[in-house]
Design brief:
Layout (H helix, E strand, L loop, with lengths): L31 E5 L8 E5 L3 H15 L2 E7 L21 E7 L2 E7 L5 H20 L5 H5 L16 H5 L7 H15 L8 H17 L3
Antiparallel strand pairs: 1-2, 3-4, 4-5
Helix pairs in contact: 1-2, 5-6
């Protein structure tokens, strides 16, 4: 999926990225705090509340900018304001998932989350994920390029670089076996030659990627 195929609304979910079953989504443990002024005779007090869509989108864009990412597109099922940002006062969509696409060192990167039952919390989770990856670079353990390698866009089919199963299946390199199998199942079903829009070349490529993954797994 190229950058041109992404839309801010409605949600465009990354190919091969596993979805959370609706009944498994949970209330997120994310809260913000602020000082609320009570009046001249009463001191301000600390107030805990939920992050708004504006809070979450601002946090996400800030984290992407700090790491050097560009051309970010946040895709959700929340309708957009005239300035292109999601509304904060719209009804909760049935699908609360959020996905972000951006360029990092010339490569397309995609991140997505639908674990939580509010869109705002899924956006916030992606922002905190990027913040954590930036922290790893600060501690000197690895680089951001290494951290994001598993999230970069798939290579073109038939590239001379050969098959890299995680890129073909569109999953992070550290995915669990169940996540890889689910990504394979969805892609194989979509591109099976017997379907209307199927492709023998794509289906074979996906099948080879899965066999490569099985070959490198510990027994």
């Amino acid at each position: 999926m190229t950058q041109e195929n992404k839309t801010r609304w409605p949600l465009v979910w990354p190919d091969g990225w596993p979805r959370t079953v609706a009944h498994q989504r949970r209330d997120a443990p994310f809260f913000s705090s602020s000082r609320r002024y009570q009046g001249s005779d009463v001191p301000s007090r600390q107030v805990r509340g939920r992050h708004s869509m504006e809070d979450a989108t601002h946090a996400l864009s800030s984290e992407i900018e700090r790491m050097g990412g560009t051309q970010a597109i946040l895709s959700t099922n929340v309708e957009l304001r005239l300035d292109g940002l999601p509304y904060s006062n719209r009804a909760k969509p049935t699908d609360p998932g959020a996905a972000v696409y951006f360029k990092f060192k010339g490569r397309e990167v995609s991140l997505a989350c639908d674990k939580w039952d509010r869109v705002e919390d899924n956006v916030w989770a992606i922002a905190k994920h990027i913040e954590a990856l930036r922290g790893q670079e600060r501690w000197g353990v690895g680089t951001l390029e290494q951290a994001f390698r598993g999230y970069m866009a798939l290579p073109g089919i038939g590239e001379s670089s050969g098959i890299q199963w995680w890129k073909v299946l569109g999953v992070p390199i550290n995915s669990t076996r169940d996540q890889v199998k689910e990504a394979y199942r969805l892609l194989a079903k979509k591109h099976h030659p017997d379907t209307v829009n199927g492709s023998r070349e794509l289906w074979d490529w996906i099948d080879q990627a899965m066999r490569q993954f099985e070959a490198v797994q510990p027994r």
